[in-house]
Structures are given as C-alpha cells and as structure tokens.
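User: If only I could read backbone structure tokens as easily as an amino acid sequence. Underneath my words sits a plain record pairing an amino acid chain with its backbone structure tokens. This is the protein in question:
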Amino acid sequence: MKTNDEWYTPAEIIHSLGEFDLDPATSPEAYRLNGSAKHYYTAEENGLIQDWQGRVWLNPPYSNPLIQRFLKKMAEHNNGIALVFAKVEAKWFHDIVLRHATAIKFLYDRVRFFRPDGTQGLQPRNGSMLIAYGTANARILSNNTLKGKFLYL
C-alpha cells in the first residue's frame, strides 16, 4: 500500500451508517480512531485474499489497481457500504460501481480524513461518495444523516 493511501475515515461517517461486521482495508491505528467494524484486516493480512462475512465497511486504498480490486470484491460480496472519491470519470466507476452497486450518495461536504498520526487533514481536492451494495444498505444510506444527493442505480 502506498504511504499516501493511509487516510482514515472520521468515526461519525461510519457510525451514522450503523454497525459493520468487517473492515477489510484498515490498520490498527485507523481502528483505534474510528472503530469501523467488529473485525478487520490489515494490509499485511491482505483483505483481498480473505473471506468477507456479513456487512462490510470499505474505505479502500485509493491508488490503482488496489481501488479497483477492492471495489470488485465488494461488488461480488454485495453487502456493505464503500467510501471513495467521487471520480465519475474513472474506469472503475463505470465498470464496477455503475454496473453492480445498488445506490450512491454523493456527499455535499468534502470529507476531512485523518492521517496515521491522528491529526485531521485539510479538505481534499475531490468530493466523496458512499456506495451501497444490497437493498438493506441502500435503505440505510438513503435515511442516514449525512448531507448529500442519494440515487438508486
């Protein structure tokens, strides 16, 4: 994983979406910060080769090809919510998200992610979107408190 792939999701985003069973792409530092799921896999454990069970929270590494691989596995699992930059021009958005996701919520505010040292970063250049896989997750995404535009696919 690239060093600049180490950005952690604010806890309030994850907790607004309910309880998750697995985070397949995190670190002990991120987990201490946001308590993303009941279980997690680190980069060393390689969540891409592990079995995914239950409802999954995914903030994948954003570099290629990792983002594509994680989103493909999420589409195959079809039970969870992913947070990624809203890069609608990206090949993975067209080939994976639009073909397999149940719903998307484009967030109004840019997410200020946390660094590995626990400090909050500045606003990123890109906005973010939450991607729901499965109807139960789409329903949760449509009813949560995060401001944004929700779309069923």
